[in-house]
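User: I'm curious what two different proteins look like when written out as structure tokens. Can you demonstrate?

Assistant: Sure. I'll show them one after the other, since each token string lines up with its own sequence. Here's the first protein:
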Amino acid sequence: MRISDAEEPLAARRRLVLAGVAGFVVGAGMIGVLWASTTAVSGPTADAKAACAALSRAQPLPEGRVGRGTLEPGVLQHIMAADALASAAAEVSSTYDDLADHIDGVRRMALSLNFADPNGRRHLAQAREICDTI
């Protein structure tokens, strides 16, 4: 059976449109994959960013010595989580050793419940400074 002359250009046009749409979809998919792979955060970097976020969520810290019951809920837990995440990042990449050391100093200050400790405050300032660069 032969296709009539009127149907032949229509069928050719459909194939051309279908090929164009398929090419667009494949191209957009490839661009998406390439974009996602260049913006993906590595394991230790993700841990360091999460540590900084956890430390940030513990803010604002009290200024002096406090009792455990007077702390806002979750402050110690956020600091402990920040310490664990920073340690994990430093274990994989030495780039984050300083961050882990300073957050550990903040953890020690928090566990003592003496938030006026000058060393702890120095560690907190240094940790915040490092977090701003990650």
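Here's a second, unrelated protein for contrast:
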Amino acid sequence: MTSAHSTCVHPYAATDFVAASDVAPTHTLVLPSVHCAGCIRTVEEVLSRQPGIRSARVNLTRRRAAVFGVPGADPGPWIRALAAAGIEAHEATTDGGGIDSGKALVLPLGVAGFAMMNVMLLSVAVWSGASDSTRELLHWISAAIALPATAYAAQPFFRHAWSALSVGRLNIDVPISLAIILASAMSLYEVANGGEHAWFDAALALTFFLLAGRALDQRMRRSARSAAADLAVIEPARAIRIEDGAQRSRPLEELRVGDTLWLSAGTRVPVDAVLDDGGVEVDRSAITGESDPRTLSCGDTLTAGDIVLTGPVTATATAVGEDTTLRRMTRLVATAENARSRYSGLADRAAAIYTPTVHIVAAAAFLGWLHATGDVRVALNVAIATLIITCPCALGLAVPAVAVVATSRLYRNGLLVKSETALERLAGIDTVVFDKTGTLTRRILNVPPNMPGIDRSVLRALAESSDHPLARTLLDALASTDPAIVSNVREIAGSGVEGTWNSTSVRFGRGDWAGGNSDTAFTVGGRTYEISGIEDLLPDARKSIDSLKANGLEVCLLPGDSGTRAQKVAARLGVDRFWSEVSPEGKSAVLRELRADGRSVLMVGDGLNDTAALAEADASIAPGSALDASRNAADVVIVSGRLPGVAEAIGTARFAKRRILQNFGVAAVYNAIAVPLAVAGIATPLMAAVAMSTSSLVVILNAGRGSPQ
């Protein structure tokens, strides 16, 4: 490795890093009752203690838990353990969309609203100066309307509170239920004793506003629907399989690798496959974001989710079930949307201490007012308002609401966020390091015209054995050549590919390694061929670099090329800092040096020799055309192939961080203002209900507000 001041040329065998997020969960549990950060914490803690479970992750948006454990294990004990903790759960039959609890809230919301308006009409008559007998009659009519309406409409809170209390736990629905019951009970006591005031309207208003907040929360979650749910919808339920010459419709679960599929025009490809016919156009916009159709030939790859535009054609299945590209992408997106960052940890810890804290504060307010006034009714009013107003819904929504919006926005722009903490790390990036070949440049190789046909066949065999972008480019030049039989083939990271043909060692790769004098060479027996080529910048490379620099980021170039070539490319890109002749181990060393200097580094690369560097960096991005190892090591994959996606990812991450911090600020300001008002007796239970619901809605609306600049 050479630059203005350093050298490093150690060999390195790259490791095939595999991202845990790309591993399919062994079980999926549906959790209809989870609705807050405290629920998530309870579920994950309970499941993590169960035998046979390595880890579990809850997706609040979809109300599902992805369980990573022993395949085929009985989930019954896990479900019973959750039930003992007050959490309803059952095994999912499919991994489709989440439970739509928003619809289940509509009827209770309507009942609460209808009853609230009628009781308020009766209250107007009381406030306008009705006689004692009339006032008492109106109070009893209000009780007849409010008590059954509250008992029905508040059931979502009562059920969750009872589930928690029955197993000795507390959740946010316990103080909410307590506030509703106390307000109703106090009102009934006042009416029975001929009191002047009753608060049936406040109990109903509290129930109505809380239900409205949760229903609107569900609606916002559907409108900012997870990209994982969008991907799941893309997958067709059935496919046409050719059996004994006949076309049969089969569910996807019955498909096997090697099956022949019939795809008519307009059909969405059900599984990954290889075309048996040529000259077909496909729409890949759902997967890669490409707007233009792509023409494929016989032997080209079809991806689950592609749409066949011209047909019919036949294709052979190469990956089915959880191994298809679409299913893997769905898992990766769902993992990223959980957003379990340090911000989530902060919100979870705050939510975990909420319930005991609010009970202590409410009890202290009750005792303080009772001591100061000697009036139980006044003290209870203050305690009820305190219970309501301190609900931590805004804090619990601060991170997941932003994570769903940000990852969905990136996916729809062709960027797949794989890592759960990628957004947080990308937001802090100040240095972007690019690999060159395949990332910023493309190279077209030319086969020497004097190369004999048999040597061309050997070269074709070696090129087919490598996934390096240069090898793929060479295959285009050798498209009409049949490959020879080469044994003992192995690819050496940063050097090339070698093997044995007719007891002779053959090599194709870096010139000095393969025995040539140029950048790329091919050696067979005693014959060495210099493989010439033309290297050019990708169309949007300079634009992407300029965009990153305009946002205050330092851009560096980290290729494995000679100093002269690296310098020329750096000059064309407007990059001032670059290294050259960097081995895979050297790339990791460069990143370690940058990080030791206090830089937060993003690595962008696509080759096998970039895999270690991608894992070494603070954050990493790989193009969709990258090798599997590079894609697995990266935090973000640009499935659309657009280089400007790097700047988009950083911009969206910074945007998400601002929104999360703003949401934390909203929650902090709300509590700083609302809690003292409640304890001071200024906020009534009705005011508390409105304030609490409003704070939650502000957080949700703020998460989806605006877009990155």
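A detail about the second structure: The first helix runs from residue 37 to 48.
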